[in-house]
Amino acid sequence: MSFIPPAFTFVVNSFTNDYMAIFSKTCEYAMRAVFYVAQKSHEGQKVGIKEIAEQINSPEAFLAKILQKLSRERLIQSVKGPNGGFYFDAVSLNRPLADIVSAVDGNEIFTGCGLGLTYCSESNPCPLHEEFKKIRNQITHMLNNTTIGKFNLGLIKGKFTLNK
Amino acid sequence: MSFIPPAFTFVVNSFTNDYMAIFSKTCEYAMRAVFYVAQKSHEGQKVGIKEIAEQINSPEAFLAKILQKLSRERLIQSVKGPNGGFYFDAVSLNRPLADIVSAVDGNEIFTGCGLGLTYCSESNPCPLHEEFKKIRNQITHMLNNTTIGKFNLGLIKGKFTLNK
DNA sequence: ACAATAAAAGATATTTTTGTCTTTTATTCC
DNA sequence: GGAATAAAAGACAAAAATATCTTTTATTGT
Question: Tell me, what's a Pfam family for it (chains A, B) (predicted)?
Fold first, then answer.
């Protein structure tokens, strides 16, 4: 008969960055929200922050801050009071997703060096410069060619998810 | 004569994420350090943390933590004491940069959804799924096909920068 | 005008990432 | 074996990102 001790798991200093995505959470929420509101706008409806947050699965108050910022920058439209909410006008629906990303995450993703060097350039390249340029260009291209309203029909048809 | 008030600049809630790069700072430092140490290893030398930190322009104590982690995972070699330091053996020099990135930033960048959705997949795609897949694949490809020692000659010749 | 509604703004709290400092351990050289 | 060296480990601190709560402002319908 042997004594088996309880399985302790104490992480001393695990130290892997928990969740290192390409975009910040702020930006992820922003993009999801924008697609959701766009779809509703296509159907002629305004949406309140509560519904948006529920539907895209984001913290309501935090998302409110994000949309406030987009609103201040006239990237999204909003009206206060009863029957108010967020929506996109026709012009805004045609804006590139890139505008949302740069409003929220800044321009680093479009211009930054993969190794984080300030003075990395064609004439003073980091080792990854050439390869990273391709990646950056592809991201930029995608973000510039994806309009806010691009997925409206697909979303209405239930082809895409924005939740979890 | 007119009174010109002092120019106050109080940022209420500027709220753009300061610096949103593809990789975390931890990962940027790790990659720069790895390339620097690799180059020295090619020349048969070990390097101390102080020199590495200086040469790649990173906070010394912080970089020490990063290299400790890589060392624990046997991705980099180290010896303590006089004439000690960090280096790569032949096997390690041939490891893909992807190993460094996933040790430090995890696997999100290789597998994650662009909109941060946990259950995004081929059968349950987010709007950006297809486009993002291409980008992820390209990043993955680059990281898998770049060995740690790949830029040794270029670095020795001064073709690349790892600093600032 | 007034009550109700919903976003905007302001203030504050929590968590994660980034960064520093001190002590310990392993190795080398004398 | 002892001093010196350099990484490893541990503890702590600061900054940034994420998240929440409260108050104010604008708008609508009655």
Answer: Rrf2
